[in-house]
Design goal:
Keywords: 2Fe-2S, Iron, Iron-sulfur, Metal-binding, Oxidoreductase. The chain is α+β, with helices and mostly antiparallel strands. It is built from five helices and five strands; from the N terminus they run E-E-H-E-E-E-H-H-H-H. The structure holds FE2/S2 (inorganic) cluster (FES) (2 copies).
């Protein structure tokens, strides 16, 4: 049975009609039109669909939209600054050549941001663990890890978040 729910995404409320089986990734992309969240495997393997739900990285392809009605969801569109300039972690990815095709990048950035939000001084091992569920077919990961380390250093120096 279809149901009207309100999803809070990037601090904005969206009223959407969903069935109990509708996946969050599909609602975010198709019903709401926020296509920064990518759908790769659709079965929990690639991490491309990662969003933050109440600050935790979650796979939106394994999450039913109807379970998110009382949660705060952040997608890649929600982390840029209000004036439209990029978030410092996005700048770090660009500066380190950590983006090639870009398909993994939204999920990768959200997984990394969640790590540094809870642990501003992660070890390289902790960074690798945090992004272990995010597959990148292009970069070989070295530049991605460097970008995340650079952002962590910036947070440590300037308190940027
Ligand atoms: S699309 Fe969700 S993990 Fe691959
Ligand atoms: S940049 Fe292409 S999959 Fe990561």
């Amino acid at each position: 049975m279809k149901q009207l729910i309100t999803l809070n995404i990037n601090n904005q409320n969206y009223d959407v009609i969903v069935t109990p089986m509708d996946l969050l990734v599909d609602v975010i992309r198709k019903a709401i039109g926020l296509t920064g969240t990518k759908k790769g495997c659709g079965q929990g393997d690639c991490g491309a669909c990662t969003v933050l739900i109440d600050g935790q990285p979650k796979l939106s392809c394994l999450t039913l939209a109807i379970t998110c009605a009382d949660k705060k969801i952040i997608t890649i569109e929600g982390i840029a600054n209000e004036d439209g300039t990029l978030h410092p972690i996005q700048d770090a990815f660009l500066d380190h050549g950590a983006v090639q095709c870009g398909f993994c990048t939204p999920g990768m950035i959200l997984s990394a941001k969640a790590l540094i939000d809870r642990n501003p001084n992660p070890s390289q091992k902790e960074i690798k663990t945090a992004i272990s569920g995010n597959t990148c077919r292009c970069t070989g990961y070295i530049n991605i890890v460097s970008a995340i380390e650079s952002y962590a250093n910036l947070v440590a120096e300037k308190g940027a978040k």
